[in-house]
């Protein structure tokens, strides 16, 4: 069955990297945290390693090597290992919890709020992230992201790219998969969504891993491709 | 453990009757639907009977007599029986589906949008309704309700007043129950929330069942009591 763009009723967004700039947010907040706590480390490497631990940790959950736990818990597991690796000592539990919640305080890419605000005029706009509901809700409040609905892998007991995440999201929205368009900077996410029948839009974020580490992505012929959320609104004909 | 109001970080709202005026919304839309479809019935009785079927249908699910199904499905079960009882014939499937979705198009009480907008400045404001996610999301868009997060019984596989609904909501918000305040017009909802440790606010909606059927409710001593959402914001000290 051929899907057409006019059928789309909801846009579901990957969040880390697609909507918010985790790299720069963590580096900036880490450097401030380091100043106030007397920690002199390379926060760029710290941010990259924290993010690098994320996929493997989720895969352990996906494959059953770890019991289900949400991203706050996985971020904390990785953080505790990183604090050791970077020889950071003397932090209180409150310090560690605050640092772990930097993922609730990530800043949006410059086009994200204005683009989502436009897209929301015509479509339901929802998160579809591996981030947990509390993280995504707090982030939306912090960053002013105008979601209609917070959808998360946490609601499904699976992590992306497991098909259950996408299937459950469409079911919760009361839509068939071809009425939903997944928007992401990562082709793996888009291909997994497409495999269950979602339409797809690729919004590359070449600076996701910081300057000097430009990410290259290759669109699938069926992907709508936009350089940011405002161009996505243009391409979808939203004023 | 004594909970204090200063601990509250999120307000969770019952929706049907507490935030939106289902009675008047259904009567008004029903009468218009009747005119365009040549159906001359008492839409006030129709609305009351539709709502009256809701509790028993949910109880069948809660007690295992019906398999899990969401409120859209339960509303449709009740609607199909009502169409027979009122001798309404000749509707297409699209007509019936449209009529069933009147629950997605309920209008807020006059204070709801302004009160929620104020409360949202300090608190996370979320639905906590037996309505399904799609219904609540569509309603929010239709009515301009500024939720931070759509939480629903549907996410838990239980219906209120089962404790799992409240417990899961607090967990998804990353909060302990005493950090959440349930806001409802119905004391049964508040007592069930309180039983798992939520704080509670009673906002009576005496006209929920229409004029001439004034609902009387008796607050528990621990309930914060407000006549509408703006008074609730006043009592909580939100400017």
Q: Could you explain how this protein is built, in words?
A:
- 2 copies of one chain form a homodimer.
- Chain A has 239 residues and is an alpha/beta fold.
- Chain A folds into 2 domains: 5-21 and 107-235, HAD superfamily/HAD-like (Rossmann fold); 22-104, Putative phosphatase, domain 2 (DNA polymerase, domain 1, Orthogonal Bundle).
- Helices cover 44% and strands 10% of the residues of chain A.
- Chain A contains 10 helices and 6 strands, in the order βααααααβαβαβαββα.
- Chain A has helices at 22-37, 43-52, 54-62, 71-85, 93-100, 112-122, 133-143, 163-172, 187-195, 229-235, and strands at 10-13, 124-129, 149-152, 180-184, 199-202, 224-225.
- A 6-stranded parallel β-sheet of chain A has the order 3-2-1-4-5-6, with helices on both faces.
- In chain A, helix 7 (133-143) links the parallel strand 2 (124-129) and strand 3 (149-152).
- In chain A, helix 6 (112-122) runs parallel beside helix 10.
- The two termini of chain A are 29 Å apart.
- The interface between A and B is medium-sized, with 20 and 20 residues.
Labels describing this entry:
homodimer; 239 residues; alpha/beta; Rossmann fold; DNA polymerase, domain 1; 2 domains; six-stranded parallel β-sheet; 10 helices; 6 strands; 10% strand
Q: Quickly count the domains of chain A.
A: 2
Give the CATH H-level superfamily of the largest domain in chain A: HAD superfamily/HAD-like
Given the C-alpha coordinates, what overall shape of chain A results?
Answer: globular
Helix/strand/pairing class of chain A, anyone? Answer: alpha/beta
- Series of secondary-structure elements of chain A, N-terminal to C-terminal: EHHHHHHEHEHEHEEH
CATH architecture verdict of the largest domain in chain A: 3-Layer(aba) Sandwich
Instruction: State the helix count of chain A.
Output: 10
Low-confidence stretches of chain A: none
């Amino acid at each position: 069955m051929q899907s057409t763009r006019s059928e789309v009723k909801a846009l579901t967004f990957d969040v880390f990297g697609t909507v918010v700039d985790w790299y720069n947010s963590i580096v900036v907040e880490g450097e401030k945290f380091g100043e106030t706590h007397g920690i002199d480390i390379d926060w760029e490497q710290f941010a990259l390693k924290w993010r690098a631990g994320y996929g493997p940790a989720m895969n352990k959950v996906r494959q059953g090597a770890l019991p289900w736990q949400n991203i706050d818990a996985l971020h904390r597991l990785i953080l505790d290992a990183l604090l050791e690796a970077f020889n950071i000592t003397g932090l209180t539990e409150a310090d560690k919890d605050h640092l772990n919640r930097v993922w609730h305080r990530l800043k949006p890419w410059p086009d994200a709020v204005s683009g989502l605000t436009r897209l929301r005029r015509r479509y339901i706009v929802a998160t579809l992230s591996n981030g947990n509901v509390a993280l995504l809700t707090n982030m939306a409040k912090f960053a002013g992201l105008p979601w209609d609905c917070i959808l998360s892998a946490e609601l499904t007991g699976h992590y992306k790219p497991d098909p259950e995440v996408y299937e459950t999201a469409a079911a919760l929205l009361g839509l068939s998969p071809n009425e939903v368009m997944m928007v992401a900077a990562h082709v793996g996410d888009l291909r997994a969504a497409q495999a269950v029948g979602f339409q797809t839009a690729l919004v590359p974020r070449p600076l996701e891993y910081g300057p000097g580490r430009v990410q290259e992505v290759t669109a699938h012929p069926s992907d709508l491709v936009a350089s940011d959320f405002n161009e996505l609104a243009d391409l979808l004909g939203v004023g």
